[in-house]
Amino acid sequence: MAAFLLVGGIASSNAQDIDQSKVPAAVKAAFAKAYPKATDVDWEMKGGNYEADFDLGKIDHKATYMGNGKVVSFEKDIPNTQLPAAIAKSIKAKYPKGRIDDVDWINAGGKISYKVDIEGTPDVNVWYGADGKFVKEVAD
C-alpha cells in the first residue's frame, strides 16, 4: 500500500488536465460502464494513467485507469462521521489542534485506505490503512 501511495503522490505532482478526446476508447468505455450516472467529468493524466474526477449525486469521486481500461484505483469523499473510530482517535491524539477538513475513502487494487486533510498548524494530509494504522503524512 505504501508503494501505491508513494507512486500516487508522485503522480499527483505531475497531473495534467486533458480533453476527453485524448482519453483512450477502452478507458472511456470502462468508465461509462462503471459510472453511467457520472456528472461534471474532468480528465487528467497522472503519470501514465488516466484519472476521471466526477460527481455521483453530490459526492466527489475519482477513478484512475491504465490506458487499456483496467482500474487502478477508485476514491470518494466520505463524511467525517464515516471515518473509522480508531483513525479518528489517532488523529485527535496526533493533531490535537487540527480539524478534519476532508476524508477520502480509497480502494486501490482491493486495498482500502483513508486520506484525511487536516487543517491546523500546519495543514497536513495523512493516510491510514483500513486497519487504522498510520501510513504517512504530507504537508499540505
Write structural notes for this entry.
The chain is α+β, with helices and mostly antiparallel strands. The chain folds into two domains: 1-66, no CATH class; 79-140. It has helices spanning 2-13, 25-34, 85-94, and strands spanning 16-18, 39-46, 49-56, 59-65, 71-78, 99-108, 111-119, 124-129, 134-139. The protein is elongated. The two termini are 21 Å apart. Residues 1-12 have low confidence and may be disordered. Residues 49-135 form the Putative beta-lactamase-inhibitor-like PepSY-like domain. This is PepSY-like domain-containing protein.
List the helices and strands and how they pair.
Blueprint: H1 2-13, E1 16-18, H2 25-34, E2 39-46, E3 49-56, E4 59-65, E5 71-78, H3 85-94, E6 99-108, E7 111-119, E8 124-129, E9 134-139
Antiparallel strand pairs: 1-2, 2-3, 3-4, 4-5, 5-6, 6-7, 7-8, 8-9
